[in-house]
Amino acid sequence: MVSSRNTMEADVNHPCMSGQVEVICGSMFSGKTEELLRRIRRATIAKQKVQLFKPQLDNRYSEDHVQSHDSNRLPSTVVGSAAELFERVDDMTRVIGIDEIQFFDERIVDVVQRLANQGRRVICVGLDLDYRGQPFGAMPALLCIAEEVTKLAAVCPRCGGKATRSQLLAVEGQDEASGNPIRVGAKELYEPRCRAYHEAGPAVSQF
Ligand code: TMP
Ligand code: MG
To answer: Is the CB of residue 33 below 6 angstroms from any atom belonging to ligand 1?
Structure first.
């Protein structure tokens, strides 16, 4: 039962109270955010209270919406940290969607676990690999704790094959030396590639 804000324990005897973690991952342009929005819309039709979150870092399309590359969008709350996200979850929320989850630090794993243990459905969406082809942020841990994993792929523009990776494009002003893989952007900075055509560093666009 809900006692006070964010302090409820899981009531395992209640059929509606079995929480779970879902992860939607894959390369850029693979439809991750589209799939998130589809699941959120269905939950809304089922009259479940939903909340969508995204990290402050992702300001590409909109400050206060989760938006796909195809311009579909739903209102979202921007948060600066995993702790802030936890604080902003309402007691009545049944379904939580978190977009661009690769940008949060490792503390997001504990927050996701706690929210699911409270009986909520937590849908985590993010890049499994950075542009170098290395696991991104807390994604490996999230993939391990998830009850359900969906891995999407885009189309490789070079061969038409399954693009499981995100290619960083060779555009001016990139600081390769920092070792930090975070570079917010979209089509001007990235394109999808398959394993065979992916390069770990900046490459020339094939479009
Ligand atoms: P998307 O998965 O919704 O297309 O968004 C991915 C975001 O992550 C986008 O802003 C670009 C950014 N990004 C990085 O910061 N580093 C990377 O290595 C890659 C592949 C993407
Ligand atoms: Mg997206």
So the answer is: yes
